[in-house]
Amino acid sequence: MKKLFALIASVLLSMNVDAQTTTLKVESFRMGIGEQKTITLDMDNSGLADAAAFCCDIVLPEGVEIETNDEGTYLFSVSDKDGRSTSSDLVIASAEQSDGAVRVVCFPKDASAFAGTSGAILNIPLVASKDLTKGTVEVSIASQEITNTTGLYTKKPEASISDLIAFLRGDVNDDDMVDGTDIQGVINVMLKDGYNVDADVNEDVVVDGTDIQAVINIMLKN
Questions:
Q1: Number of domains in the chain
Q2: Which of 30, 43, 134, 141 is deepest in the core (most CB within 10 A)?
């Protein structure tokens, strides 16, 4: 009987270990062609609770870049979404690699562990070219290395892949242009008292008169 209990305990322990993960990732997201959007780099370090530094390569599709300042420095910033660190104690370094990926290294100045074991770490400000093609493309977080407070234990997770859905904002009827028919498309959704992500032009999770105005504003700019 004791052997049986020991076997059960061993299985449960192995299941718990397997359930713990350590990875860097971004959530799948939508982005308007020719627009800017800030996403977050999230870290799940339940398998390395004292994670204190990480390095990774951000691989973006053609037509999407990380915003830079006039000196060419990538404008990463500390995310305050989940309170995992603060800008005053975090070091962020980044550089473009020969394959076009952007490598970012991040760690607290005092080598302390990041707060918590899951959630956002960095803001990534993206810029989409007007030549970006509509559709779904991949964003990869590759060459990951996550190190603990002692610097003696490093995990190297596999690359994480997420979807970037590129769309033409205001193109409600998906005809590759923004015109009066798209205003009618928003009205049609409103009359049905429903929801359509393409008709939610201002992304406030409701389709109403403000979306009609948003389509008009896009038409006036074109």
A1: 2
A2: 43
